[in-house]
C-alpha cells in the first residue's frame, strides 16, 4: 500500500508547537506522514516540527506557493530573482522539516493572470528559475513536485500536458510533477489518460474531493483515479488536501467561504476511504 499523508492546511497554514496534539492524533489514525505549508518565517519552528514528527514515527512533505512579487514567469529579472530566493527559502524550511518533497504551484504566482494564454517564453523563464532552484534543492535531496491548477487559480499549467511541457523546460531530475484529483476533476477529460501523460515524472499525489471536503463524499470519479494510479504503478504518497475556514486568513486567500467537512471527519473517514480504494485497485 502507498504511504498515506494528511495536509494540515485543513486546520492551519502555520507551523508551530500548537500542532503537536494534531500530529499525535493523525498518527493514531494510521497516517504515515504529514504535509505542511511553507509560509511561517521562523526556521526554528520547522526544526522543532521536524524533530517532533520524526520522534513519533511520521514522515513529512511540504507545499508552497508564490506571490506576484516573486513570479518565475515575470518579464522582470528582479522579480524572477526574488522567486528563486523564495524557493530557496522554502527549501531551507523543508529541509528543517526533514521533508524530501516540496509540492505545489510554485512555477508561477498563484491567482495572478495576464488576460491571455501562457506563452512559450513564460515556460522557458519558469524553467530557468526552477532549474536553478533545483540545483539548490539537490544538496538537501529534495524533489520539487509541481502542481497544475484549475483555470480559476492559474493560467500557466492547468493540465498534465502543460505540466509536462514545463518540466521539460526545467530540465532537472529534481523537478517532477504532482497530480491533484480536485484540479484534474475540473481540467482533464479523463483521469486515466492524464495519469499516463504525467507518469514518467509523477512524484506526488493529492487526494482531494471536488468540494475540498472528505474524499469519497463528493463526485470525483475515484474508481477511475485509483485505477489510473494502479495502471501506471504509482508508488508515492497519497496525501489528503482539504480546506476549512479554521484559519481565516488562509481561507480568505484561497476563496474558501464555507465549511466543507469537519477536519477530523476528513482525516478519519478520508484515511479509511484511501485504504479501501487502495486495496480495491491494488495500490
From TrEMBL:
Listed Gene3D superfamilies: Divalent-metal-dependent TIM barrel enzymes
Organism superkingdom: Bacteria
The entry's keywords: Isomerase
Record-annotated Xylose isomerase-like TIM barrel domain positions: 24-252
Molecular-function GO term, any one: isomerase activity
PANTHER family given in the database record: 3-DEHYDRO-D-GULOSIDE 4-EPIMERASE-RELATED, ISOMERASE
Name of the protein in question: Sugar phosphate isomerase/epimerase
Protein species of origin: Dyadobacter psychrotolerans
Organism placement in taxonomy: Bacteria, Pseudomonadati, Bacteroidota, Cytophagia, Cytophagales
